[in-house]
Amino acid sequence: MLQGKYAGKKAVVITNSDAGNKERPYGHCVVAGVAKYPKKVTVRMGKKKILRRSRIDPFLKVVNHKHLMPTRYNITLTNDEIKGKVSLSDPTRKKASKKHIRKVFQRRYFSGKNTWFFQPLRF
C-alpha cells in the first residue's frame, strides 16, 4: 500500500476490477492486509504470552490501483479459504469478513508459510 491509513503495510489482492463500475469509475480491488504485525517471540515466554504476541490484526479495504505497488511476491489463497466469505457491503459483514481473514492469516503464520508477509517493511 502506498497511500492512506495503511501506507507501508503489506496486502493481498482478493478481488480485482480493472474497468471499474458506476460507484467507482476507476480500476480498483479489494485487498486484505496486515494492520498490526506479530511481535517478536522468545523461548522463555509462556504459551499465553506467545499467543498474545503472535496475534495479527488484519484490514479489508477497497483500493484504487494507483495506491498499490505490485511486487514479485505472491500468496496463493485457495478459493475455499476466501471465496464468498469476504464482503464489505455493510459493517456487520465487514466485521465477520475481517474475523475470517484473521483466522486465515493466523493459520498461515503458525504453519510457517509466507513468513515474509508477516514481517514489517523496513525502509
Query: What is the strand content?
Result: 15-25%
Overall shape: it is globular
Catalogue the unreliable spans.
none
The helix/strand order is EEHEHH
- Biggest β-sheet, characterized? 3 strands, antiparallel
Structural class based on helices, strands and sheet pairing: alpha+beta
Helix proportion: 25-40%
Tell how many strands the DSSP assignment holds.
Answer: 3
Q: Calculate the terminal CA-CA distance, rounded to whole Å.
A: 14 Å
Using only C-alpha atoms, the radius of gyration works out to 15 Å
Oligomer: single chain
> What is the tally of helical segments?
3
Mean model confidence by pLDDT: 89
Question: Could you give the order of strands across the largest sheet?
Answer: 1-2-3
Write structural notes for this entry.
- There is one protein chain.
- The protein is an alpha+beta fold and 123 residues long.
- 26% of the residues lie in helices and 20% in strands.
- It is built from 3 helices and 3 strands.
- The radius of gyration is 15 Å and the shape is globular.
- The mean pLDDT is 89.
